[in-house]
Design brief:
The structure holds two protein chains of two kinds. By secondary structure, chain A is α/β, with parallel strands linked by helices. Chain A contains seven helices and 13 strands. In chain A, the strands form two sheets. Chain A has a nine-stranded mixed β-sheet with strand order 9-8-7-10-6-1-4-5-11, with helices on both faces. Chain A has a two-stranded antiparallel ribbon with strand order 2-3. The N and C termini of chain A lie far apart (about 65 Å). In chain B, strand 7 and strand 8 form a beta hairpin. In chain B, helix 3 packs across helix 4 and helix 5 runs parallel beside helix 8. Classes of the chains: A alpha/beta, B alpha/beta.
């Protein structure tokens, strides 16, 4: 069983963001970087399948500048066997179609049986790359998966719909699933596994050599949203804040009357 | 400008989100037609052509069959924009359609700015205006971003369509995980987010909910961590609520959560991050450590 997991490095969402001089992306200088949260579930599910089948080999793939290697190493420490780094300094200029095309250029002749991606990224959140990749590779694509089981080449998954509803889908390998939060419990890498990860294969490929695809979209501008006016910000001593909040609740709502 | 609006049908009901698609189309002054895999008995009030495929035959959702139906209609209508809701149906079907027709896709549009489409980046901390370079563009709209401004009206012209249904994936075996408390009936909801830190701290949030005569709610990470039961989840994938008072404790304000509670009459947020996106919709943001503030609030409420 050959498994591919596609992951993205994203900034910590708690960061304070500013717009870079190009006016089309955020300034990446002072940001802390981590693995896209949805992709942690993708890595974990791949590792769980490997533990279930034993005979499985997991390749983790990521696209971006050199700093992406840190996130790749985390996936290796979680249990992926080998890694591919598609080097691309200006990854944010690539639209979802180009990203999926780059992965396809690498993956199309590798015969992956099962591909995992996150449902979406936390920064751009287009939710397109996984399903476009399934289309380009000609495999069954299922999005928003919250429950996963594999029996031979029979796949049974649950998709999460709105309002606390799920639906079951059965399909066959080869397949691609996009992972929703809560699919499993992503593990923390242990120290011995972090050490082992350093010895695993990490193949670096230049994006330009893989494929040339025309952009389908462009960013006109990136900007900070206007702060809503009228929302009151309270700061200070907790006891005073409690008094103020209770007064506000009494004045503005009827719930205490 | 011509739009094709993709309405949704779930568990034998037409979803109201179709009126947001109609509103979006009105705002960009486009001629529209509408596509629905549903049933003749549940058509929207709409003054244009509805291309209707039978959900009994084509499934409420079957990506291969629905894509084929939609692509056939796109070929007939030649719309500039194909517009979906950003929902489990829309975000699943839209990229497949975009791929087939060679279009670019703009996901989860929150606003229109000079005819260009604006999306949210980094959990709503930034906004991005995007333009597609392709002849046709596929668009998904954030839930609630284009609320209808007038009563739905009009009598549609019906055009029935069908296709081969041998597609592999059909959704089946719907099951609800939301059974339990109906939060939509609660007057007060006090919700816990990841910022509560530990499962044990949920007790203090519950105590505050009780002191205010309300129900406990939770954000997705709290439910995923199994600190709270799934039926307590507020947001796109949980329950949508509009209580008289909503208190968000340690909730940063992921758009999926905001979509489920922003219609609350009065919103108080308690958060240590004064830049948290929840502050954009909160009437009051108390910048404080909830572990100090929440017990004090409960105590003072109980003694008055």
């Amino acid at each position: 069983m050959k498994i591919l997991v596609c992951i993205k490095q994203v900034p910590d969402m708690e960061s304070r963001f500013s717009v870079d001089p190009s006016g089309t992306w955020y300034d990446s200088g002072d940001l802390a970087w981590r693995m896209n949260e949805y992709d942690e579930y993708a890595v974990e599910q791949a590792v769980l399948i490997k533990e279930q089948l034993e005979d499985a080999d997991i390749t983790v793939l990521s696209i971006g500048p050199q700093r992406v290697k840190e996130t790749i190493k985390k996936a290796l420490a979680m249990g992926c066997d080998r890694a591919v780094h598609i080097e691309e300094e200006r990854v944010h200029n690539r639209d979802p179609f180009e990203i999926a095309s780059l992965i396809t250029a690498y993956a199309s002749d590798k015969g992956f049986d099962l591909i995992f991606t996150g449902l979406q990224s936390q920064d751009r959140g287009s939710g397109q790359v996984g399903l476009l990749l399934a289309e380009m590779l000609g495999v069954n694509g299922i999005s928003t998966v919250v429950d996963f089981s594999l029996d031979g080449d029979q796949l049974t998954v649950q998709r999460e719909l709105e309002g606390g509803t799920r639906a079951t889908i059965k399909t066959q390998l080869p397949a691609l699933v996009t992972c929703q939060l809560g699919l499993n419990t992503p593990r923390y890498p242990t120290l011995p596994n972090i050490m082992k990860a350093k010895k695993k294969d990490l193949l670096a490929l230049g994006a330009e050599q893989l494929t040339q695809t025309a952009s389908r979209q462009e960013t006109i501008r990136l900007f900070l949203p206007d702060k809503k006016t009228g929302g009151l910000i309270l700061e200070g001593d907790a006891a005073d804040l409690a008094e103020q909040l209770i007064r506000t609740i009494k004045e503005k709502t009827t719930v205490l009357s | 400008m011509k739009t094709l609006l993709v309405a949704e049908y779930r568990q034998e009901k037409l979803l109201d989100s179709c009126y947001e698609l109609i509103e979006f189309s009105r705002q960009i002054a486009a001629d529209s037609s509408l596509f629905l895999v549903g049933d003749e008995s549940t058509l929207p009030a709409y003054p244009g052509t509805i291309y209707l495929a039978d959900a009994q035959k084509h499934g409420e959702y079957n990506p291969d069959a629905h894509r084929q139906l939609l692509v056939d209609v796109i070929n007939r209508e030649q719309p500039d924009l194909i517009v979906f809701s950003h929902s489990s149906y829309g975000w699943d079907l839209a990229p497949r359609v975009a791929f087939t027709i060679g279009a670019g896709q703009i996901s989860e549009v929150v606003a229109i700015e000079n005819q260009d489409l604006v999306v949210s980046v980094c959990n709503a901390k930034l906004r991005r205006t995007i333009k597609c370079l392709t002849a046709q563009t596929v668009v998904t709209l954030q839930a609630g971003a284009f609320p209808p401004t007038s009563e739905p009206a009009g009598q549609p012209t019906l055009e029935k369509v069908e296709t081969d249904t041998s597609g592999q994936q059909t959704l089946s075996g719907y099951q609800s995980t939301a059974a339990g408390v109906d939060l939509s009936k609660a007057e007060v909801i006090v919700s816990a987010g990841r910022g509560i830190g530990t499962a044990e701290n949920l007790t203090m949030i519950e105590a505050l909910a009780k002191a205010l005569g309300g129900e406990l709610g939770a954000s997705r990470p709290v439910v995923d961590a199994e600190w709270a039961e799934p039926h307590r989840q507020v947001g796109t994938t949980g329950q949508t609520v509009a209580p008289k008072l909503y208190v968000a404790c340690g909730i940063s304000g992921a758009i999926q959560h905001l979509a489920g509670m922003k219609k609350s009459e009065f919103i108080i947020a308690i958060n240590t991050d004064r830049d948290a996106p929840i502050g954009e919709i909160a009437d009051v943001l108390a910048v404080a450590d909830l572990k100090q503030l929440v017990p004090l609030l409960t105590e003072k409420l109980s003694s008055t």
